[in-house]
Design a protein that fits this description.
Blueprint: E1 3-6, E2 20-21, E3 26-30, H1 37-45, E4 51-53, H2 61-73, H3 81-89, H4 97-104, E5 111-115, E6 118-122, E7 132-135, H5 138-141, E8 148-149, H6 159-176, E9 190-193, E10 197-200, H7 202-224, E11 230-233, E12 239-244, E13 247-250, H8 256-282, H9 289-293, E14 316-320, H10 328-339, E15 347-351, H11 354-358, E16 364-371, E17 374-378, H12 385-391, E18 403-407, H13 410-426, E19 429-433, H14 440-444, H15 447-451, E20 456-458, H16 465-482, H17 484-497, H18 502-517, E21 523-525, H19 560-567, H20 575-587, H21 594-608
Parallel strand pairs: 3-15, 3-16, 8-14, 14-15, 18-19, 18-20, 20-21
Antiparallel strand pairs: 1-2, 1-4, 4-5, 5-6, 6-7, 9-10, 11-12, 12-13, 16-17
Length: 611
């Protein structure tokens, strides 16, 4: 099964059905009010919306065999939903069904749109034109629909009743794992057994509520950063309360944001408890009924480990304006939690918040709305500069999580983009040219670097990470022991002396700018130690047969530019020659010299994944 996305028909302001592709990453819908974000989000998660597959889920494959058999036999019959289900359950799919349907419909490849009551064959280049319709049972097509979790699906006022319902089912299943066969009727605190008559479930209910409230509170801290105490009172019809200033108040009396997120955390924990007891039943784990009734719960009935944001990592999450009613730190915490799901995907977020959206740059697909019912799809593999440019048209908040890697010049930019562009984009890092090392101090003292809170990187040629680290450590020691003014004076004295390479002097100038701006905690030295960025390009691109630059005679003690001019005739100071080499690098599928490439990779990785 390969899930490709959704084919929603949201209605106005959208002109018709649309394809929302899914690439196993988060999807963010963002744009002004009134452009249709919420309508599209609701249409995507609607169970009636067709889902698009490259190959059908296994439970739906028998329908291809059924329909094929009817066509080949010439006996077409109309079946009801139940008969469709029972027939499909009894049929083994044929291995050549896929090829048979492609041949019949005269298409080299088919995709399948799964609707609530039918399967539709479509062409990959036109998923909206139905080539054939095959009836299917709702019980089977429903398996293709994602199990969505949506904040707001359950109002805080309904949480008590939902907890009561879940406890009733959970208690019945928990008792079934032991010797006590009992049913839990309308009163959830009393079970009935043919052998034992009425059984009090009060102790079990209180243990359930304690576990539920404790895990829900911990989940809430993970999800949105709220540090509150929760409790659920079994003797008061499973009423939920939250602690406020040392007093317990009904959850429904708490703030809108707190009650909303507490309800989500509680419902996810209820789902988690249901999953645990269902697994115990499925694996036929035996528990002690007497201990269970006394509230001493067997480990088999408990969820394993610490609670995450959601009951399982495979949960599908749809959030419409999750930032609403959240103070900035809580909204930031929520964004970081959701961004951590980047490797899982399965998350849709509609938002107006540029600051929230900023946390997903590089790890999400963006649907950018530019008019009612009009949007464009921006994917991280296309780079993030254009995306950030479009987002910042609405305000600078889109850059709240973006880091900048300052590089010396055009060719550093070009080669780094080719070798590490996707990794940098995925980490929400953009590159900026300094146009020579003399631009480092200017870049470090820019208003942008001083006003943002993100780290930034500086990459020089010639300077190794160890060398730069030692120099910066000396500056930080002077700052700590003698103060900022003394550290800056010492740096300026070194700049005035002008000793050493241009990179050495400009590094001191950059350090002075960083200290002057008070941004020393955000500076990251991304030094690879190469004489020139072209050192990472394989010698074969320069026309040499050597496998390494060392084999070609370069010992690293002189300028790589000078060596290249004498050994290969290539003038790395000439823009036209550099452009020719980059084109040859691309044409040869970008081969790299292993030693230099490893040094560059270490430097870049150190910035992408600090600490």
């Amino acid at each position: 099964m390969t899930f490709l996305g959704w084919l929603p028909a949201p209605g106005p302001p959208f002109p018709g059905p649309v394809l929302i592709p899914y690439r196993e990453r988060l999807i963010v819908l963002i744009g002004p009010n009134g452009y249709g974000k919420t309508r599209l989000l609701q249409a995507i998660v609607d169970r009636r919306t067709p889902r698009l597959f490259a190959t059908l889920p296994g439970r739906l494959s028998p329908y291809l065999t059924m329909e094929r058999a009817a066509i080949e036999s010439g006996r077409r019959t109309t079946r009801g939903d139940r008969e469709l289900f029972e027939t499909a359950e009894s049929i083994r799919p044929r291995e050549d069904d896929r090829g048979w349907w492609c041949a019949r419909l005269d298409r080299p490849e088919l995709w399948w749109s799964v609707a609530p009551d039918a399967l539709h064959a479509v062409a990959p280049d036109d998923p909206f034109t139905l080539l054939v319709t095959i009836p299917a049972a709702h019980r089977h097509t429903g398996l293709a629909v994602e199990p969505w979790v949506r904040p707001g699906d359950l109002e805080p006022t309904a949480l008590d009743a939902e907890t009561t319902r879940v406890f009733r089912d959970w208690a019945h299943a928990a008792l079934a794992t032991g010797s006590a066969r009992a049913t839990v009727p309308a009163n959830p605190l009393v079970a009935r057994s043919d052998a034992l008559g009425s059984i009090s479930l009060l102790a079990l209910a209180e243990a359930f509520c304690d576990l539920l409230a404790e895990r829900a509170a911990r989940r809430l801290r993970v999800l949105a950063g709220f540090a509150v105490e929760l409790r659920c009172l079994a003797v008061e019809n499973f009423a939920w309360q939250v602690s406020a200033d040392g007093h317990w108040i009904p959850l429904v009396s708490a703030s809108r944001a707190l009650s909303r997120w507490c309800t989500l955390s509680a419902t996810e924990t209820l789902r988690e408890l249901q999953q645990s007891v269902a697994e115990a039943e499925l694996t036929q784990i035996k528990t002690d009924s007497a201990r269970t009734l006394a509230g001493d719960l067997d480990r088999a009935l408990l969820p394993p480990g610490e609670p995450g944001a959601f009951a399982t990592r495979t949960t599908w999450v749809a959030m419409d304006e999750p930032e609403v009613n959240l103070f900035a730190p809580a909204a930031h915490h929520l964004a970081e939690t959701l961004a951590a799901r980047a490797g899982v995907g399965r998350t849709l977020i509609a938002t107006h918040s540029l600051d929230l959206a900023a946390r997903f740059v590089g790890v999400a697909d963006f649907l950018l709305f530019d008019g009612p019912g009009r949007y464009s799809l921006e994917r991280p593999e296309r780079g993030i500069v254009d995306l950030l440019g479009r987002l910042t048209a609405y305000g600078p908040g889109a850059l709240a999580a973006t880091r900048v890697l300052h590089v010396e010049g055009d060719w550093d930019f070009e080669i780094l983009e080719r070798l590490h562009g996707p990794r940098l984009a995925a980490a929400n890092i953009v590159m900026s040219r300094m146009h020579g090392v003399r631009g480092a101090g200017i870049a470090a003292s820019s208003v942008w670097q001083r006003m943002t809170s993100t780290s930034f990187g500086m990459m020089f040629d010639h300077v190794s990470a160890a060398e730069a680290g030692r120099r910066w450590a000396r500056v930080r020691e002077t700052l700590a022991t003698r103060g900022r003014a003394a550290a800056i004076r010492e740096l300026r004295a070194g700049i005035g002396a002008g000793r050493g390479r241009a990179e050495d002097v400009e590094m001191l100038r950059m350090f002075a700018s960083v200290l002057d701006g008070g941004i020393e905690d955000r500076l990251h030295l991304v030094m690879h130690g190469l004489s020139d960025i072209f050192q990472v390009v394989h010698p074969s691109v320069f026309g040499l047969t050597a496998k390494t630059w060392a084999d070609a005679g370069y010992d690293g003690r002189t300028s790589f530019k000078v060596f290249c001019r004498s050994a290969t005739g290539a003038d790395l100071a000439a823009g036209a020659e550099c452009r020719r080499l980059v084109k040859a690098f691309d044409a040869a599928d970008r081969p790299v010299e292993a030693v230099a490439a490893a040094a560059l990779d270490r430097a870049v990785t150190g910035f992408i994944e600090p600490g």
